[in-house]
Write a structure and sequence with these properties.
168 residues; alpha+beta; three-stranded antiparallel β-sheet; 4 helices; 10 strands; globular; disordered N terminus
Length: 168
């Protein structure tokens, strides 16, 4: 089944995903922001099956190759966010065309990895970011953009809606 790659503005998004492109790029919801939205998800979406991404994998990879960080935020917030450390595996995964940012190329990202990879409020890092099972290949095969495996408080974000996961 082919999925759509478009923004569905009428939804109330639980998350918004951003990739840092430059200090002059602006997102329509966050004017004067250096972040470009690449996707969003909602745990309440009930429309036709659709991608959470606004762009194709090739377009995300191209944008990621000009970026240094990935940011995930709760909908409507510019402060309830986690941001990857510049050059860390979340952005390098996207640069390599791997549309999954929860796992480094080798293994899992437990608490020390999460602490060294993500910055944000203590409510989010490392609590929401660690996982302790699976590999990047497993996350990709499960269509998980973010999979905090075995972490009930972690981010679980599937690449499509409805029927996918979307939550802290």
């Amino acid at each position: 089944m082919e999925v759509q790659h478009k923004l569905v503005p009428e939804l109330t998004w639980k998350f918004a995903l951003f990739v840092l492109i430059s200090t002059t790029a602006a997102d329509f919801q966050f004017p004067d922001s250096p972040w470009t939205r690449i996707g969003q998800c909602s745990s309440t979406y009930s429309g036709p099956r659709t991608s959470i991404f606004n762009y194709t994998t090739a377009e995300i990879t191209t944008m990621a190759n000009r970026a240094t960080k990935v940011r995930m935020c709760s909908a409507g917030s510019t402060t309830d966010c986690v941001t990857s450390v510049a050059g860390s595996f979340p952005i390098t995964n996207l640069q390599a065309g791997q549309i999954s940012i929860s796992h480094p190329p080798t293994g899992v990202c437990q608490v020390p990895c999460a602490t060294n990879t993500w910055t944000g409020p203590s409510l989010r890092v490392p609590l929401n970011m660690w996982g302790r099972c699976g590999t990047r290949a497993d996350a990709i095969s499960r269509n998980q953009f973010y999979w905090a495996c075995y972490n009930g408080d972690g981010i679980h974000m599937t690449n499509y809606m409805p029927g996918g996961q979307c939550g802290w």
